[in-house]
Structure formats: C-alpha cells, structure tokens
Amino acid sequence: MSPTAGTAAGTALDVAGVGKDFRGLRALSDVDFRVGEGEILGIIGPNGAGKTTLFNVICGALRPDAGRVVFGGRDITGASPDRIARAGMVRTFQLMRPFGSMSVLENVSLAAQHRRQSRHGLRKRSLDVVERVGLGEWAHCGATELPTAGLKRLELARALAMRPKVLLLDEVLAGLVPAEREPVLDLLAALREEDGTTLLFIEHIMAAVMRLSDRVLVLDQGRVLAAGSAEEVTSDPRVIEAYLGEEPGGDDD
Ligand SMILES: Nc1ncnc2c1ncn2[C@@H]1O[C@H](COP(=O)(O)OP(=O)(O)O)[C@@H](O)[C@H]1O
Ligand SMILES: [Mg+2]
C-alpha cells in the first residue's frame, strides 16, 4: 500500500506502480503519483517519454503490465475506456478525429450521449458546451470545415459534453498560435474554479504549464523524473538535462 498523501481534499486519481512494455520497449516503469480533487497536474517530458501511453493506461485504452489505477477510490485497472468515461474520467486525443460528415453540434451531442440524459438535456448540454468553448457560430457547420484551432476546441467540447470529474488533456494547445491559446487556458482555469474539475494536462508549452499547474510531473524514458511545483521542476538539473538530451527519434536507454 502506498502512503497516504494527507491532503485535505480527497484523492481523485491514484496511479500506483504502473508499468507498460511494448515488445521489450519499457514505455512506463513504476509510475507513481496522486492527483487531488480539483487539482491541476501538468505532465511534461521529452518526446517518447511515455506521456500519451500514461493517459492510455489511465483511461483504459491500454492495460498496464504492472500496477494499478484507482479513480475516486475504485480500482479501475483494466476497465474499458467507455466504462471509465461513464464513471467520469475523460480524455482528449492529441490527434483529433471528429466525424466529418456531422456538424459541430452533432459531434458534441454524440459525445454527450455517453452520459445518460433526456433528449432535451442532451441538446441543451451540447449547445452550452459548444458555446463555452467558443464554437457557437460554428455549431451547425460541418466539423471538417473547422480550422485547426476549431478542431482543438471541438475535441475539448466533446470531452466536456461527457461532464468529466477528471479531464485528461493531451497537448490541447499544440498547433495554436499564442492568441488562440489564451481563451483555452482561461477555459481550463474556469473548469477548475467553477466546476471543480480535476485536470491532468500534457503540454509542451511551458508558459501554459507554469500558469495553470498546481504541480508538475516530469516523465523521462517512462519514469517519473521529478514532481513538484513548476518552479521546482524547471530548475531541477535532471529535468534540464533530460530536455537538453532530447533529439528526434532518440530512444536509447
Ligand atoms: N502502441 C504502441 N506500440 C508500440 N510502441 C509504442 C506504442 N505507443 C507508444 N509506443 C512507444 O512508447 C514510447 C512512449 O510513447 P508515448 O507515450 O507516445 O510518448 P510521449 O507521448 O511522451 O511522446 C515511445 O518510444 C513510443 O514509440
Ligand atoms: Mg504524446
């Protein structure tokens, strides 16, 4: 059993000793951390560090080879992504894949159906979410008509339509110009302030990590290299070294 964190708020997510291999490649190794309810955890690390794999394990897309994932006090290790989403833990994807033949609103409604609710509730919820992410004017446009920034917002809207208690964001700012990032950051901050949503966000844009995170987890070669405040981890020599050593496709042990 891992030691108790001793925080006032409850633990939203407990990742304990998680390991994942891909045919001999150790993608995750003994990954341990907790996230408190309403906390915002930034996750950083060089390319190939295992960040997306970690999300896949947490949200049920991949079964870990070792360890367990406890969400809201329940062991969900190995549960299906659908069950986990229904229980209130939802993730966005790094590569967006909306249904191109459907409108923005229909894409969001489809996601909203994951949570059982009345037809009226579903439509209202979907419209609210579309407005909230700033896609109101695009609601009835085809999803494929959206520019990159719009697709990112749609991906976020689909996740929000499922009313997550815990939301995992995989590089939601990538591909956005600075002016487009601000409203997304404001929205994420509001999700915590107004809805009490717990956030885990993988991000390369350090200004965003510094602004939003209560705590930052640094992954490198599948391991937790450091954890602490944004200031602490970014001044940690091991973290600086991990980033300096980053090279495209570099995967040596
Ligand atoms: N489905 C998979 N099959 C085989 N190898 C994978 C798979 N997914 C990820 N990997 C490998 O696991 C490592 C971690 O990848 P990933 O989690 O995508 O890293 P990050 O998101 O930090 O860039 C990389 O070496 C990657 O090539
Ligand atoms: Mg990734």
TrEMBL record:
Pfam families: ABC_tran, BCA_ABC_TP_C. GO terms for cellular component: plasma membrane. CDD domains: ABC_Mj1267_LivG_branched. It comes from the Bacteria. Keywords: ATP-binding, Nucleotide-binding, Transport. Residues 13-246 form the ABC transporter domain. The keyword Nucleotide-binding applies. One of its GO terms (molecular function) is ATP hydrolysis activity. This is ABC transporter ATP-binding protein. It comes from Actinomadura darangshiensis. The lineage of its organism: Bacteria, Bacillati, Actinomycetota, Actinomycetes, Streptosporangiales.
